[in-house]
Amino acid sequence: MNTQNKLYALRRKMDEAGINAVIIPNADPHQSEYLAGHWQALKWLTGFSGSAGTAVVTQKEAGMWTDFRYWIQAADQLDCFELFRQGDTDVPSFDRWLANTLSADDRVAVDGKIVSAVQAGNLKNKFAQKGIVVDTTMDLISDLWQDRPPMPLTPAFELDVAYAGETRNEKFFRIRKKMKDHHADCHVMAALDDIAWAFNLRGQDIHTNPVNLAFAIIDMHKICLFIDPGKVSAALGTALEADGVILFDYNAFYEAIQGLNKKSRVLLDPERISDFIYQTIKMRSDIIETANPSILFKCIKNQIEISHIRDTAVKDGRAVVNFLHWLDTSDTPTTEICAAEQLLNFRKEQDAFIHPSFDSIMAFKEHSAICHYSADLDTDLPLSPDAMFLTDSGGNYLTGTTDITRTVHLGKPTSQEIRDYTLVLKAHIAVATARFPTTARGYQIDAMARQHLWQQGIDFGHGTGHGVGFFLCVHEGPARLSPLPLDIPLGPGMLLTNEPGLYREGQYGIRLENMLLVIKDKKTQFGNFLKFENMTFCHFERGLVDKTLLSPREINWVNDYHHKVYDRLAQFSQIFC
């Protein structure tokens, strides 16, 4: 079916069910950012392939909302859906638009098995003010999706404690201590990265995300893991059982939560669990709403992980520097897709490399202004010596996860391109050199990056940085460097990116990204202070830097950084040979 036929079929189903509007989020039962094909209903219905979006369908209208990163991509991919540029001036949120479109007593459907408890609660509260009913018991998509991909069945494997730095029993002990602090008898987990971290398990159920589809229930006496038995080898099963883990089939989870003790006090994170799970447990048990203990634990890397991350920074730096050298010297005609394959080959040469941490963004000319551009056979541009080229990529290694962006010019840059690049570099340096108290939040550091752009009337529509997992998801919470006023203090051991950008639609985009580790700085009479340790080694493009726009301090930082890159990579990388 094409998009028009899918909308027709969906509207018939809505009419039969007495539904006036349906909300289709980009979500799965685990609140994942990236989804297995089985759960990509938004892509199936709309044709939009980005990782963030929400569609709304009424009997007469169809709209899709996505943020700045995907505005250009969505405009190109959508046909029967109106694009709403979420976050743009005077653009209503999807729920406000829907509330203004519908009437009292109208009914809105959203699948409670994939929407989070927090999202569902917010929708119910907002629509109740206008007398609109939200029904979370309906899945109107599955029956229409005839060629739906099956559930993934890739093998799970153990992350050795030599990499993890902590056994799963040590992690279970910490989780149970937090449960006791909250007077909880039981903890229900659905977020895949939380489960992967707690059980020291990895997999490949989601493209580029080393996780397994699973649920978990931890109480004070037993630990239950719900996972397809076909993913667990005999050896892994024996190891898990030796640590007290009881294995159940993935689909047995929903029956298990219905059988929880009625007197149980269940700790769960309403932002990382579906509304269906939340409501099922709420009918039987008392709920303690708080962040999953694991999300707070895993964002603070232990000393073993940090040691591996430092080694991984060198390995990944070799790959990217060799790629940029190849890009600069190769006489072989290439394209955006071929460039991505070449970088992957350089990463495959590195020890302990498993797979990319996300699909590489190889963006030439105007494509570089598309924040999360993804080349395909229809858009793949040949590279030529006359424009900007942005490469945003990362790797998942047994020894850590990486994320790096560099922007180069394949010919002679214009004065505006040089100025823009230098402004982004100044923003990058402002964060890299920041000193801040232990009370600082990410939005305060984010403003440090933007100051140099704001002074020129320039801004960018994404956060300055995000957390990064350890051989896990490349986007990890709870900390981030973003304008959002999140009350999450930065602390030693947090791994974050520093990636300010500048995008001129239809012309070019610039982004410069390193990873940074939060470390202790010093104690003064005003308190304890923190700073960042660089965790990425790859040169910047000197030909795009206007030194007259840099302060002496900034020039010294660039020179010192390049010396560090040389010291760590010279013996390994072709560019220094």
CATH superfamily of the largest domain: Creatinase/methionine aminopeptidase superfamily
Question: In the CATH scheme, what's the topology name of the largest domain?
Answer: Creatine Amidinohydrolase
Structural class determined from secondary elements: alpha+beta
Number of domains: 3
User: Briefly, what CATH class of the largest domain?
Assistant: Alpha Beta
CATH architecture of the largest domain: Alpha-Beta Complex
Radius of gyration, in angstroms, nearest whole number: 24 Å
Strand percentage lies at: 15-25%
- How many strand segments? 28
Helix count, per DSSP?
17
Major sheet: 6 strands, mixed
List low-pLDDT spans: none
Write down the overall geometry: globular
Q: What topology, given as strand order, has the largest sheet?
A: 4-3-2-1-5-6
Portion of residues within helices? 25-40%
If you average the pLDDT, what whole number results? 97
State the end-to-end CA separation: 55 Å
Protein name: Xaa-Pro aminopeptidase
Family: Belongs to the peptidase M24B family.
Keywords: Aminopeptidase, Hydrolase, Metal-binding, Protease
GO cellular component, one term: cytoplasm
